[in-house]
Design a protein that fits this description.
The chain is α/β, with parallel strands linked by helices. It has two domains: 133 residues, Nucleotidyltransferase, domain 5; 169 residues, Nucleotidyltransferase, domain 5 (2-Layer Sandwich). Helix content is 45%, strand content 18%. It contains eleven helices and ten strands. The strands form two sheets. The chain has a five-stranded mixed β-sheet with strand order 3-2-1-4-5, with helices on both faces. A five-stranded mixed β-sheet has the order 8-7-6-9-10, with helices on both faces. Strand 6 and strand 7 form a beta hairpin. Helix 6 packs across helix 8. It is globular and about 65 Å long.
Length: 331
């Protein structure tokens, strides 16, 4: 089965063609990072305009790279949510136009399911499993009994982990995007600053990062008032250790409780070296799946892969009245 994937939930315009959820024939991504770096973050109106400018060219390149024709496509899978509504609408309408023109079935895919199924491209997914979903807008622990059976066990009560990274980066003067900059500097520093590890209650699987973020802001502010110099590398290392310790320990605790076969790490923050190293260092016999960096961030190959498994699980397709949903729930 050849699946055409379309992803425009935020600031990447991406189109991919994937065979049987595994073989990536093309995965074209046009990033808008340079555009939004001028503003220190994603500007929704600019993002949607950039998608409009790029979507046709990205479609054309995806077919050239894959060396297939539109007539050979069996299924169209498009991100229908969650995300920036203007951005989502560009991808949804482009996908529906393609499906109408070439008379192809179409399904809407949840963006977070796409991140989880990015792992299916390079790994064999085994069930039951626990997925740690970490990105700029989400931090969730999800239990999966089988394909496309999602039970959210824990989630952030305030900031998502990627959001906390970006805010800390801004406070210490690092450029956008902040997450990779903090991760890079953390490898050069030491965990010398005392920052809180927020576990909430002993049996909770939820997360909270606003207190940790505030602790960093207060530390930098106090140092400024006293004219004390802050080691940015050490502060990044201290912050990253505080974050990854909680993420990894809660994930392992849930994996042991549920007696799972596999731990899946997904989302943009799964590219974080500190998080990967802690999972490897503290692993106690679990099979841990983390996507290659090219599949960690937003891309259409993960949407095509998710669409394939979603259709295999339930061969239901959408009609052309399908619309984007900015706050679409995973469950």
């Amino acid at each position: 089965m050849l699946v055409l994937g379309v992803e425009t939930s935020c600031d990447e315009t991406s189109v991919a063609i994937v065979r049987d959820g595994k073989e990536v024939l093309s995965n074209v991504i046009h990033s808008q990072i340079d555009v939004h770096a001028l503003y220190g973050g994603v500007v929704p109106e600019i993002a949607s305009r950039q998608h409009v400018y790029q979507i046709s060219m990205v479609f054309e390149k995806a077919f050239r790279d894959a060396k297939v024709t539109p007539e050979e496509i069996d299924l169209v899978a498009v991100t229908k949510g969650p995300g920036l509504i203007g951005s989502l609408l560009v991808g949804v309408n482009a996908a529906k136009t393609f499906a109408l023109l070439y008379e192809k079935p179409i399904i809407g895919v949840h963006h977070l399911a796409g991140h989880i199924y990015a792992n299916a491209i390079e790994h064999e997914m085994k069930f039951p499993s626990v997925a740690l979903l970490v990105s700029g807008g989400n931090t969730e622990l999800i239990y999966m009994k089988d394909h496309f059976e999602f039970e959210i066990i824990g989630q952030t009560l305030d900031d998502a982990v990627g959001e906390a990274y970006d805010k800390v980066a801004r406070v210490v003067g690092l450029s956008y995007p902040g997450g990779p900059a903090v991760d890079r500097l953390a490898t050069e520093g030491k965990d010398t600053y005392l920052l809180p590890r927020v576990y909430l209650s002993a049996d909770s699987y939820d997360f909270s990062f606003s207190g940790l973020k505030s602790a960093v802001i207060n530390l930098v502010h106090r140092a400024s008032l006293k004219n004390e110099e802050i080691s940015v590398a050490d502060l990044c290392a201290s912050f990253q250790n505080a974050v990854t310790e909680v993420l990894v320990q809660k994930t392992f605790r849930l994996a042991k409780e549920k007696k799972v076969k596999q731990i899946i790490v997904a989302g943009g923050v799964s590219a974080n070296r500190g998080l990967k190293e802690r999972f490897e260092r503290e692993n106690d016999g679990f099979e841990i799946c983390i996507p290659s960096i090219r599949y960690c961030t937003d891309n259409a190959a993960m949407i095509a892969a998710a669409g394939y498994y979603q259709y295999r699980k339930n061969p239901h397709t959408d009609d052309l009245s399908m619309n984007a949903v900015a706050n679409l729930e995973l469950t």
